[in-house]
Amino acid sequence: MVSPINKNVGRRGVLKTAGLGFLAAAGGSMLATSASATPETAAKALAKMTGGAAMTEGKVKLELPQIAENGRTVPLKVTVDSPMTDDNYVKHIHIVAEGNPTPEMISFNLTPGAGKAELSTRVRLGKTQNIVAAAVMSDGSVFTAKEQVKVTIGGCGG
Amino acid sequence: MSKKPRIKVPKKAAKGEIVQIKTLISHNMETGTRKDKSGKLIPRNIINKFTCTLNGKEVLSANLYPSVAANPYFAFHVRATESGTFEFTWTDDEGKEIKASNEMTVA
What we know:
The complex is a heterodimer of chains A (about 160) and B (about 110). Chain A is α+β, with helices and mostly antiparallel strands and about 160 residues long.
């Protein structure tokens, strides 16, 4: 009469070990692919993109949803306060992510012909993280803005 | 991927007006971090460059990285100074170029 219980325990034991094995395997593969950007590597990437110029906060407005339910496609809008004339315009807008597999997201190269430094696109976000935008002006000065997005489901594959 | 890009450019604009242009292209923007069923990494293939020219002169370009979502969408602005043809070019990692053009009349 004891044997059914024993059988049950045995079955559970098997499941448990199998489950642990699976978790370990999953954990291993997660570690292998989770080499992602950090605030430091993102800052480094941004410094490289902007040519290492000193950055000042301001002039740049970064618009992203506060909470992104799906990281696969997150609307992003960046606006830079600039008259966009021939001698005073935004040359580049670089955007980096602090928690994606690669820190660089996108770089826009503008000309005075753009008339208005306002750009929209859609990006992927792997997890909750900060997005940093830096605008390089025609006189060489660099302005930045930072925005945090909470991500419910990551969008970087895996 | 062979689907035609969708572009919105106003047909007419007043001189000096700032007009908005929107583009959308079908591309799965493979990041290079995804694995297929057998566990092999799927090689990266993204659109890495987008350019927009007006009468051959560059107005705006963008360098794209894997963090740009699939089917890249852009909305940007152009100051209407002269009538002419906008040319849009998307280049992917395989070197494939997708081109489209639109006319705009400035009065």
